[in-house]
Amino acid sequence: MIKALCLAFVLAFGVTYAKAETLDPANTVYLDTKDGRVVIKLRPDLAPKHVERIKTLVKQGFYNGIVFHRVIEGFMAQTGDPTGTGMGGSSLPNLMSEFSPQPFNRGTLGMARSQDPNSANSQFFICFGPASFLNGQYTVFGEVVSGMDVVDKIKKGDQASNGTVRQPDKIIKMQMMQDAN
Q1: CB under 8 Å to 1, separation ≥6 — which residues?
Q2: Which one, 26, 58, 66, 148, has least CB within 10 Å?
């Protein structure tokens, strides 16, 4: 009976039973695209201020409908700009960096920023693969625990235009696990 329930849970939510047991609903985000759901574990142990910002914006519905404006094959998919240009952010103030020794690997979420290390606001990216050149220079705030197959399907941008995407995919809905309906 328990095995059947676990299998039903895995099929319905795409999360392994072991991972589901360890997820904290207050620090887990569901990011839905046209291709499915990405489950993100937030890491307040690494970047508490950045995690709090993401949670605030998610709860406001800020990310709903925002596009993946910059997507580079083999590197990352970037989103979080309400203008879709890579130049916008939320109305909240920028954040001070929270760099950590946590490496950028496949599924790592990092905060995008300008040349100023203390300019992160609302934009973030998900790594398609290891990106060690970012280590210690960008804030890691989370990791994909389920749905990297969905991330892999995000429409890629033009390499010649630094990953700019024409008719980009978007976040349909982003919500906290604890608030999901």
Answers
A1: none
A2: 26
Three-state SS letters, the chain: CHHHHHHHHHHHHCCCHHHHHHCCHHHEEEEEECCEEEEEEECCCCCHHHHHHHHHHHHHCCCCCCECCEEECCCEEEECCCCCCCCCCCCCCCECCCCCCCCCCCCEEEECCCCCCCCECCCEEEECCCCHHHCCCCCEEEEEEECHHHHHCCCCCEHHHCCECCCCCECCEEEEHHHCC
Assigned CATH for 23-179: 2.40.100.10
What is the domain partition of the chain in residue ranges? 23-179
User: Average model confidence (pLDDT) for the chain?
Assistant: 91
Q: Is the pLDDT of residue 49 over 80?
A: yes
CB distance 98 to 48 below 8 Å: yes
Which of 122, 107, 103 minimizes the C-alpha distance to 174?
A: 122
pTM of the model: 0.88
